[in-house]
Design goal:
- Two copies of one chain form a homodimer.
- Chain A has 348 residues and is an alpha/beta fold.
- Helix content of chain A is 43%, strand content 16%.
- Chain A is built from twelve helices and twelve strands.
- In chain A, the strands form three sheets. A six-stranded parallel beta sheet of chain A has the order 2-1-3-4-5-11, sandwiched between helices. The first copy, chain A, has a four-stranded parallel beta sheet with strand order 7-6-8-9, with helices on both faces.
- In chain A, strand 3 (139-143), helix 7 and strand 4 (162-165) form a beta-alpha-beta unit.
- In chain A, helix 1 packs across helix 3 and helix 6 (122-133) runs parallel beside helix 7 (149-158).
- The first copy, chain A, is elongated and about 80 Å long.
- The structure holds a DNA duplex (30 and 30 nucleotides).
DNA sequence: TCAGGTTATGTTAGCGCTGTCATAACCGGT
DNA sequence: ACCGGTTATGACAGCGCTAACATAACCTGA
């Protein structure tokens, strides 16, 4: 069958709207000989159409090269199919891995992820959140649990599911998926002692969570009688360069031996390079433990001892939780601890 | 002439639409005692309002906690203020750096960037492009210059500015910002010779552009009389692990000395680690040259000789070109070669 | 004084979709 | 024949904005 009832009742008001050659639903509908809503259904709920109709519409879509307009669709349906993710920095692989999984999973579920790169200072976060809410995302992922009051408010009144990640809190905005930085500090301290170190150094990025770990390690160390501690603080974002710089600071401050806890594997890699360039063998007098267990950690020379975080799991759990909220299914728990694990390789 | 819409069926149906507590323009307008369009202007073209009115509206906005809806705004204005960027992988720092600058600049210009991570195979690119066009971006950045015909078509009929990056072509879809992989190959070959190497190895990721560089280096080397060449190919994404693996392949294939050209600095870092773990000094019998001059390249031990690409410039030029197109200003050139530079450090 | 400009603000009509009915066509079972 | 229940499709009224024009208020100079 071909175009049967063509022009039934075209509206007489031909407005000059076809300035842009954009193909719209109406055009596809006309080509397929159905109504606009039927085309809409062919795309969004194909199971509601008769197979025959569905086919006809699909063909019309292909023929016309129709690309749906989700601005319009989102406006009408009050669902943008957009998920926002706010991370401190795109240029930090640690987050990239989580986000990569996060995006892919959401893509499979029919959502797109829009990334916001907040830089580390929280001030920006607020601005970013505001800008992003403008797109009416169906859900949002945040990094960290510290947000300005204005930011919290913004998020709350947006009435969308929120996942906070990379940290834990008893009072999440909605859902939190992370791990316990204080506990990490304690276990790292114990690990250092266990490995026989009696003095310690820290090379930490100026980042709230890194500092929490450092403080906790330090306190535990103190409790265990280790007080010979030297610290170096470097700005974000972490890099090998800053790792080397931090090492020099440590050395300048009189650090001669002990365990160095770095707030990221990248920093640790820099520490390693700096020590090697000074012919200081690792491990030995100096041991290094990184943080993150990034992809390269097992392949440095020597392989890096570090704290493994299951970053993919963070991504996975965040997706699941968000999706559950969006579809109004119950979430098992709104506080998800993905834990951590000290991976003992050769630098400590 | 106007006021033709006579049949205003406006029946006294009080719209129960305020189900969602969303603040809209109208509400702000009412609070400020102005019309909706005035609020719109206060946000988008404040210079068109009397300072006094502007203030009043701003206050009403703050009072009500209004967050504009860009789905609606974009639909009405046919401008989403969205820019799409498609890169092979978020989890690859090489691209992240360009994108980071790209996003930040666009943010300053009032745009948001939506990232698409295509994975390397082109098939996905098409799907991704389609999905992204659905959001009606005002511009799009692509990585590479090879696109399927369908994809090209999609892009072309979207009638939006397109920048292709990381490569050069005489026939860009619209604008291209990149560098010449063939020329890099030639210069790297010359550099190897100049450094005294008479045999070569390649550790290359299975990526079109990397392979182009390798081929060009190889051909040039051949022309210059160097035929003792061994190659190792590794999958994407590059990692230290694959660098080590590639090195082992090279060694297994009988590579005993010469210059190794790696398709990325990350790979080079792996090569370095593998050689160090075998106590093979670098440079010396074996030299290494990487690609990219990533942040860590200057800080490995020993510092890595590599090919520097001005990634930030790619980002900058891409933004400028896109912005020029969007505002319908002339672009200086639609083919922008950002060049490259061999950075001689200590591994070759 | 007034035509003619220049702001500052408002009115109207959509942008391209989808939610929500309404309608139509068909299905048995009685 | 009737009924109620499905299933498939359509009509219509917005979603929350902004472009484009209309209007009002206020200049300016001859």
């Amino acid at each position: 069958m071909s175009s049967s009832g063509k022009e039934k009742k075209m509206r007489a008001k031909t407005r000059p709207s076809r300035v842009k050659g954009d193909v719209t639903l109406d055009i596809v509908a006309r080509v397929a000989g159905v109504s606009a809503i039927t085309v809409s259904r062919a795309i969004n709920k194909p199971e509601k159409l008769a197979p025959q109709t569905r086919e006809r519409v699909k063909q019309a879509i292909a023929e016309t090269g129709y690309v749906p307009n989700l601005l319009a669709g989102g406006l009408a349906s009050r669902s943008s199919k957009l998920i926002a993710a706010i991370i401190p920095s795109i240029a930090n692989l640690v987050y990239a891995e989580t986000i990569s999984l996060f995006s892919n999973r959401f893509r499979e579920a029919g959502y797109q992820v829009i990334l916001g790169d907040s830089g580390y200072p929280e001030v920006l976060e607020e601005e970013l959140v505001r800008a992003i809410l403008t797109r009416r995302p169906d859900g949002i992922l945040l990094t960290g649990v510290d947000h300005s009051p204005v930011c919290r408010n913004l998020l709350l009144s947006a009435r969308i599911p929120v996942v906070e990640t990379w940290d834990l809190t008893p009072t999440p905005l909605d859902i939190v998926v992370g791990f316990d930085h204080v506990r990490i500090g304690r276990e790292v301290a114990a690990f250092m002692i266990e490995k026989g170190y009696r003095s310690a150094g820290f090379v930490s990025a100026d980042d709230a969570r890194a500092l929490t770990r450092q403080r906790s390690t330090q306190e535990t160390l103190n409790k265990l009688g280790v007080t010979d501690i030297v610290t170096a603080s470097v700005p974000v974002p972490s890099s090998m360069e800053l790792g080397r710089l931090g090492t020099r600071q440590l050395l300048d401050k009189g650090f001669t031996g002990g365990a160095i806890f770095c707030s990221s594997d990248t920093l640790a890699q820099g520490v390693l390079a700096e020590l090697q360039s000074r012919n200081i063998g690792v491990p030995g007098k100096i041991g290094i433990i990184g943080f993150g267990d990034q992809v390269f950690a097992a392949f440095t020379h020597p392989p890096l001892t570090t704290v493994r975080i299951d970053r993919k799991r963070i991504g996975r759990e965040a997706v699941d939780a968000l999706l559950a909220r969006i579809t109004e299914q119950p979430v098992k728990s709104n506080i998800i601890d993905v834990g951590f694990e000290i991976i003992s390789r050769q630098t400590m």
